[in-house]
Structures are given as C-alpha cells and as structure tokens.
Amino acid sequence: MAERSSTVFSSTDVRALTLSLTALADGTRWAEALEILASAPAARLDPDILTLNAVFDALERGGRGQDVSQLYEEAVAAGALPPPLITSGRVLDLHDLPVQVAVAAVRATISGASRQAKLDHSVAQRGLLIITGQGMHSSDSEAVVQPAVKDVLRREGVLAFAPARFVGPRKGPKQAAGQEPGMLVVPPNELRRFWDRHRLGQSGLSQAASDRGCGRDRLPAGRRSSASRSG
After folding, report:
1. Which strands sit side by side in the sheet containing 91-93, from one edge to the other?
2. What is the Cα–Cα distance from 152 to 150, expressed in whole angstroms?
3. Which positions carry the signal peptide feature in this UniProt record (predicted)?
4. 81, 97, 160, 213: least CB-packed within 10 angstroms?
5. pLDDT at 179
6. What global pTM score does this model have?
C-alpha cells in the first residue's frame, strides 16, 4: 500500500497541490491522487486545469480511463473545466488544453457522453475533425497532444483516422503534401461503427450492473472515497 502523503497545502498554494499530484503519476498511486484531490475543498483550494490534468494523468497511467471520464464530466458540469469546444458542428478544438484534459475531451465527445459536446447531425455524413495543434507552444516544440489523441482513439476502438487534407501549398517543414499535420479526421463510417458498438457495449454493461444490483466502480457525486480503493 502506498505511503499516505503528509503534504500540507496553504489555502492559496494550488501550484504545490499540482506538483504533488504530478509526482504521483507512476501508474500505481492513482487512489492517492484522488484522495489528495478530495482534500482540496477542506484546504480551501480550487483545483485548476493543470491540477485536474495531473489527476487524470495518474488515473490514465493506472488504467482508470472510466474514472477519468466521470471525473471530467463532473468537472465540466461544475465549471472547473471548459466543455469540449465544438465549432461548425463537427470540429473538436483541443488548442490550449493540457494533454490529459484533451484526451478526456476526445473520449467524452466520441462516446457522446458529454452533454456539452454539441455535434451537428452532419458529423455522421462528414466525419469528426480534431484540431490537435503541431506542438509549436510546447517546451520542445514537439507535438504532444496529437500522439496522445491517436493513442486514446485506438484504445477506444476508433481505428480509422488520418491527417486532415487541404488544398494549397505546404505551410512548413512538418507538412506533408496534401496533409494538415495539426488536425485529424475520423471518417463518418468509422464514427457510425464506433457508435453502434458503443451503444451495444453500454447496453451490456447496464444489464450486467443491474444483474449484480450495484454499480460501485464509478466515482460518486463529489469524489471517490479512499475506502473504495480497488488497486
């Protein structure tokens, strides 16, 4: 069992909270990260987007993607995180989002779980365009959001996606002929296939939970308590 953190935070030290949570992202201490996050209100701390990104990172590395999704939805509903930014009915803009928040936004959008993700009906005919950026604002000018987005799409079972295509001259050395390196497109037939499979999967999960008479593996309103650790 991981040693309990003894860090004490001042009422304004959100940065210290974030740094402490970042140190827990080794894949084994996700429960401790949730515990520290749950203690923030008592310390009069208001976690920001980087704080939540650190918690999401700890959960993702611990294989707790479903917990990330529920915590993300709670944070969006509470106004702690912006809802997925959908423009033109089919464009998911991940600009200026830290990596794990961007990943959570993608997962919520493609699954239809986010009530705030207002996709136009035309996305079923034209596909979903995801703007990831090219890493120009990262510390080493390398793209970090797009590889993470590709990874979560594959893990969620969305296997057919490609760089967006454009008409015009190349805009820089990273741009292959006819491709926009900072954007991905999920084609409409792949989205429909994913949605059909997702609906069937959700139906099966709901029936299994009903048969068991419980659904305790989800974060409750607020935060999951430390008593519900399950490895």
Report:
1. 85-87, 91-93, 128-131, 179-186, 162-165
2. 6
3. none
4. 213
5. 67
6. 0.72
Q: From CA 73, how far away is CA 65, in angstroms rounded?
A: 13
Rounded to 10°, the helix 99-111/65-78 angle is 90
Among 55, 81, 107, the domain boundary falls at: 81
Residue 8, CA distances (Å) to 41, 115, 227 in order: 13, 36, 21
Q: Comparing 68 with 120, which gets the higher pLDDT? A: 68
Please give the tally of structural domains in the chain.
2
Residues 189, 123 share a domain: yes
Torsion sign, CA atoms 21, 96, 114, 190: negative
Domain of residue 118 covers 82-168+175-204
Looking at residue 75, the DSSP 8-state letter turns out to be H
